[in-house]
Amino acid sequence: MSALAISLGAELSRVQHRLGVGLQLIDALSGRPLATTLDVSLRGIGLLPAFRLALQPKGEGRYSLADAGELARRWTAAAAPRRLDLWIREAGGSEAQCLHALGPRRVQATLLEADGRPAPRRENLLRIPLLPGPAYPFPAGATLVRGRVQRQTANGPLPARWARLHAFKNGRLLASSQADERGDYALLLRYPPGLLAPATPAAGDGEIELRVAARGAPPDPHEPFDDLEPEPLVDLDLPDPWAALPAAYGLRVTLPRTLSLGRSHSGPDFDVLL
After folding, report:
1. Half-sphere exposure (CA, 13 Å, Cβ side) for 78?
2. Which among 85, 155, 179, 263 has the fewest CB atoms less than 10 Å away?
3. CB 40 within 8 A of CB 55
4. C-alpha dist (Å) from residue 102 to 34, 36, 49
5. What is the CATH architecture of 19-130?
6. Residue 74 and residue 45: Cα distance in Å, rounded?
7. Spatial separation of the C-alpha atoms in residues 271 and 185, rounded to whole Å
8. How far apart, in whole angstroms, are the C-alpha atoms of residue 180 and residue 29?
9. Does the predicted model carry a pTM greater than 0.70?
10. Among the listed residues 222, 118, 136, 214, the one whose alpha carbon sits nearest the alpha carbon of residue 175
11. So what's the pLDDT on residue 50?
């Protein structure tokens, strides 16, 4: 007796999931997608108890989470409007282990929906800019300001964690930055048309306003970065970024400073106590 054996070979299957949450991280200085892989997670939807779902890197600064599994269950359990609580930070087990090249952010955003699910539309791809940290690879010959921001307390000065800094000239925004957990910051002044100082500086080009904002009563962090202030997703290069800062950034000061173009500046003139 003989038998005919037919081999079908290896069967390939592909499971496609509908996109639940998608975002792209942007370098706020260059405007380009970030190539560095960061720790991006969804920590909440609406009024649901806190949780943590990691978004998966997809290249070119993109991260995504499929509308399936735990996300689908939590999305269904949340009441509309379903506001997302997204956390972005550099990889590292602790704040001290991070590179401090990019400032962390906690962003809250609401997606367009279709039939009670995240709508598969281009408008739902969130573009999130990240400000430079003190270890950002600034270009050679740039005009830089480096310093530390502290807040006065009953126990003496303490670091103003995640303070925001802006440089203005004649009402025009030249630079934005974010301090790290130690209050250290670095500002790159972006003189048009490029990132470097003018080739032939005119008198007064180095006169700026340094504006600093910090929180007066920030929460005590129990784990790395968990005292980040939630903020709506807005363009960090708004003409008046102060207007978009969370209300908790109530300690604010404006300091006139004069810089030498094409140099890095630091020292007591650029350390701020609020």
Report:
1. 24
2. 155
3. yes
4. 10, 10, 28
5. Sandwich (2.60)
6. 8
7. 10
8. 17
9. yes
10. 136
11. 86
273 bridge partner residues: 150
Which tokens in the block code for residue 196?
């470097």
The pLDDT value given to residue 101: 94
| C-alpha span between 41 and 54 (Å, rounded) | 4
Residue 238 identity? L
Q: Do domains 19-130 and 144-273 have the same CATH topology?
A: yes
Give domain 144-273's CATH architecture: Sandwich (2.60)
Phi-psi region of 170 (alpha: psi -120 to 50; beta: other; left: phi over 0): left
Q: Which two tokens stand for residue 152?
A: 């006065």
Q: Residue 206: CB partners within 8 Å, gap ≥ 6?
A: 143, 258, 259, 260, 261
| Burial grade of 130 (CB within 10 A; 0-12, 13-18, 19 or more) | buried
Q: What is the pLDDT of residues 126-184, one digit of tens each?
A: 999 999 999 999 988 889 999 999 999 999 999 999 999 999 988 888 889 999 999 99
- DSSP state, residue 60: T
Q: Are 41 and 3 in contact (CB under 8 A)?
A: no
What average pLDDT is seen over the chain? 87
Report the C-alpha gap between 151 and 230 in whole angstroms: 20
- In three-state secondary structure terms, 124 is helix
* Chain position carrying tokens 């779902």: 53
Task: Provide the token pair at 18.
Answer: 């509908």
Measure the CA–CA gap between 57 and 120, rounded to whole angstroms: 18
pLDDT in tens, 193-223: 444 555 666 767 789 999 999 999 888 888 8
Which of 109, 166, 159 has its CA nearest to residue 132?
166
Give residue for tokens 């830089």: 144
